[in-house]
Structures are given as structure tokens and as C-alpha cells.
Design a protein that fits this description.
mainly alpha; two-stranded antiparallel ribbon; 18 helices; binds NADPH dihydro-nicotinamide-adenine-dinucleotide phosphate
């Protein structure tokens, strides 16, 4: 794709322009800390006024920076491990652990966790450390974003992102000036997108499960479901790690505070809210309720995986038998757009599946509190906003062909609704 990387006033409108880029880096970190406080409080009400504020002593623990920096170093080490070579050396291992080293990192982390449990490490203590860990992750996000902003001035012109080069320092710091910054061969964005945050999320979840075991001698069904569903989601993302290479985050967005904070602080600490909530607010689930929730998660996962795989396969090899019979329309770029199969149902079937799963992750927490539904509400807003951004990019890329796709497939995410 060719685009003009000169200063673009139109790009400044994204995320509320300069005002958004100034307020979001203040508002979102405070939101993370606020949600963690609410979720650990007995009332757990997001509507409580005045809001629950922790004593400052609860925000800091000297162990937290050690754990956060150690975690980043450990995951960087896994990232650098020459797994591809190991795979080629060991055929049987390659059958088991075929495509991606992100999945290897998850497996090695699981082995280390098992070992640390066996050595008697109190993983449930992560519950007490949640706030200090979040404070440190937020601090690391700011420092890394600052480094990225400054180092981008040494990047060659062709390495800059379209949206993050307006000349306005606050906006560019937020959006990211450089598209895919590297230290040597270490791709910082590719690493941060999936490794430390996603694996950190399931480790925090597991810590919450262990805390529940400490408190009540066993893990509840609700906690097991939340852990299981989210582990499946993370394992799937890491197994299909290479698919991230075609996402908007990698292809279009610069690597700035928006993505760094999202990857390192927002995802691990807000996506694990349901598990943290269940530690303080245990829920009992009937077998029928649990079956319905498992079915909903299964349906969401099926739609999410099938639709993502169909598009990835089509983009990789349109002549592959699984996609070659699908109806398509031509575009002026030479690329074709699917208008049947999953992508003929709605224009973002993968978002539909993702949202069904989001609901299934909240339902085990019962109906008495709003907080566990924060993820569904936030994620709906995020995906509607993301869908609108993607539509803008696709309309600019495909012009009239995109308009005719929209006429053929009128609904964006929810069939017959939106
Ligand atoms: P998508 O995977 O939805 O990709 C959008 C791109 O697909 C478009 O830019 C276009 O790119 C291509 N495309 C669109 N329509 C068609 C069509 N009809 N035929 C062929 N190609 C088409 O983008 P995302 O990166 O937003 O999402 C990836 C996954 O990640 C989703 O499942 C989403 O739910 C998930 N996600 C999860 C988040 C989380 O926090 N849990 C956050 C964000 C996303 P081109 O034509 O150039 O190939």
C-alpha cells in the first residue's frame, strides 16, 4: 500500500485528536486502578460515590517492579529462543508444537508455573499484589512509550507510521511515530502485542484461582470456567501468532502509548477482572447455567476462529480448496473481497464471535454486580470503534468495490441489528 507519510491533519481526528491523546493517557491508567480497587471491595459497585480509593501504601510493593521487569525479561528471553531451529531438529516435537513460538512461550511459562507451585510458591499472593503490579506496568508503559517516541526521530522516513506523524508531540506520543520499531532484530511491537500482556493475563487469572483455593480449599466452577475460557482465547491467539501480522495494529498503527499501554497494562489487569472479582465474591453455578455458558463460549469461539481462519486462508492462498469456491468481488488493488461464507454474513463476523465469548466470560460472575460486565461493555465500544476505523481504511483502499461489498453485506457486526 502506498500512502503519504507527510504530516496528515486528517489522522489527527482519530481518538478525539489532541484532546483525546492528552486525556486518555491520564484517564485510562486511573481507570485500571479504580476498577481493581472496586473489584476487591466488598460492595464492588462501579456506581458507588465517592469512589473507593486505596490507601497509598496499597499502591506500592518493592516486589512489584522486580516481578514486572523480571516478567518482561523472561518473556523477551523466550521470544529470542531459537524455537524454529529446535522444531526442525525435533520432528515429533514439531508435530506437537507446530506453528508459533508464542505458543511455546505459553507452554514454557506453564511448566515454570507448575514447578513454582511444586516448590511451594504462594501464587495466590498475586491477588494482594494486583494494585502495585498494575502501577508498575503503567509506569513501564509510560517509559517505553517515551523511549519509542524519542528513538523514532532516528528512524528512517519509510519506517514511520501514517497516523502518528502530525508534528503534535502529545498526539504523536499517543499514536506512535514509528510503525514497527526494533532493537536489532527484536521487533518491539510484535513482541508486546501478544507475549507479556496476554500470557501475563492468564498467569494473573491462575493466581486468582490459587487465592480462591487458599481461601476456600477448592476452586469454584465459576473460577474454573473463567480461567478455562480465557486460557483457550490466549492459547488460540498465541497458536495463531502470525495472524497478528495482518492486523490493523501491526500494519497501520504506530507503536506509541495507545498500543504499549493496551498491551502491557490494560489487557492483563482489566481482562482479569472477572477472576479477581470471584476471589472476593464467590458465585455458585447450576449445572444447567454452566452448560449454557459453555455452549455460548463454544459458539462464540467457533464463529471467531472459523471466520478469522477463512479470511487468513483466503489472503494467504485464494486458490486453496477451502476458500476457492467462495464468491468474491474484485477491487482496483488486485485483491479480492469475500462476499460469501462468514464474510457474507456480516462485515466483521470475527468481532461477533469475540463479543459472544466476552459475554460468556462475564456470566459466571452472576447478575448482582455490573463490574464483571465491564469487559463486555468496553469491548463492544472498542470493536464498534475499531470496525469504524477499519471501514474508513477499507473504503480508502478499495473505493467503489468496498461500497458494493457494503451493499451486498449490509450489517457490520450483528446480523439484522447493526
Ligand atoms: P480483522 O481481522 O477483522 O481484519 C480487517 C481486515 O480484513 C480489513 O482491513 C481487510 O484487510 C480485510 N477484510 C475485511 N473484509 C474482508 C472481506 N470481505 N474479504 C477479505 N478481506 C477482508 O481485523 P482486526 O485486527 O480488528 O481483528 C483481528 C481479530 O482480533 C478479531 O477476531 C478481533 O475480534 C480480535 N481483536 C481482539 C481484541 C482484544 O482486545 N481481545 C482487540 C482487537 C481485535 P485487507 O483487505 O487489507 O486484507
Amino acid at each position: 500500500m502506498k500512502f503519504n507519510k507527510q504530516k496528515s491533519p486528517q489522522a489527527e481526528k482519530e481518538f478525539g485528536g489532541t484532546l483525546g491523546a492528552t486525556c486518555i493517557p491520564v484517564f485510562l491508567p486511573l481507570t485500571v486502578l479504580y476498577l481493581l480497587c472496586v473489584c476487591r471491595s466488598p460492595v464492588a459497585s462501579v456506581l458507588q460515590w465517592p469512589p473507593v480509593l486505596p490507601p497509598t501504601a496499597q499502591l506500592w510493593d518493592p516486589l512489584a517492579p522486580v516481578l514486572i521487569l523480571g516478567w518482561m525479561a523472561l518473556q523477551s528471553f523466550f521470544y529470542l529462543l531459537p524455537m524454529g531451529k529446535v522444531r526442525r531438529l525435533c520432528f515429533y516435537l514439531s508435530l506437537f508444537l507446530s506453528p508459533s513460538t508464542g505458543f511455546h512461550a505459553l507452554c514454557i511459562t506453564a511448566v515454570l508455573l507448575t514447578l513454582s507451585l511444586w516448590l511451594g510458591m504462594p501464587l495466590g499472593y498475586l491477588f494482594e499484589l494486583l494494585l502495585p503490579l498494575a502501577v508498575c506496568a503503567i509506569g513501564v508503559s509510560f517509559l517505553l512509550s517515551l523511549y519509542l517516541y524519542i528513538s523514532s526521530f532516528w528512524a528512517p522516513h519509510h519506517a514511520l507510521a501514517q497516523g502518528g506523524n502530525t508534528g503534535n508531540p502529545l498526539y504523536d506520543f499517543f499514536m506512535g511515530r514509528e510503525l514497527n520499531p526494533r532493537i536489532g532484530s527484536f521487533d518491539l511491537k510484535y513482541f508486546c502485542e501478544l507475549r507479556p500482556g496476554l500470557i501475563g493475563w492468564v498467569v494473573i487469572n491462575f493466581g486468582m484461582l490459587m487465592k480462591e483455593v487458599e481461601l476456600r480449599d477448592s476452586a469454584s466452577l465459576a473460577m474454573i470456567l473463567v480461567n478455562g475460557f480465557q486460557l483457550l482465547y490466549v492459547a488460540d491467539a498465541l497458536w495463531n501468532e502470525e495472524a497478528v501480522l495482518t492486523t490493523m495494529d501491526i500494519v497501520h498503527d504506530g507503536f506509541g502509548f495507545m498500543l504499549v499501554f493496551g498491551d502491557l497494562a490494560w489487557v492483563p489487569f482489566t481482562y482479569s477482572l472477572q477472576a479477581a472479582f470471584l476471589v472476593v465474591h464467590p458465585q455458585s453455578l447450576s449445572p444447567l447455567g454452566a452448560t449454557a455458558i459453555v455452549t455460548l463460549n463454544g459458539a462464540g469461539y467457533y464463529i471467531f476462529r472459523k471466520s478469522n481462519s477463512q479470511k487468513n486462508q483466503f489472503r494467504r492462498d485464494p486458490t486453496h480448496p477451502s476458500v476457492s469456491k467462495l464468491e468474491t468481488i474484485a477491487t482496483a488493488t488486485g485483491k479480492r473481497l469475500l462476499v460469501s461464507g462468514w464474510w457474507g454474513l456480516v462485515r466483521h463476523p470475527n468481532y461477533l464471535g469475540d463479543l459472544l465469548m466476552a459475554l460468556a466470560w462475564s456470566l459466571p460472575c452472576g447478575f448482582n454486580h455490573l463490574l464483571p460486565y465491564f469487559y463486555v461493555v468496553y469491548f463492544t465500544v472498542l470493536l464498534i470503534h475499531r470496525e469504524a476505523r477499519d471501514e474508513r481504511h477499507c473504503r480508502a483502499k478499495y473505493g467503489l468495490a468496498w461500497d458494493s461489498y457494503c451493499r451486498r453485506v449490509p450489517y457490520r457486526i450483528f446480523p439484522y441489528i447493526y
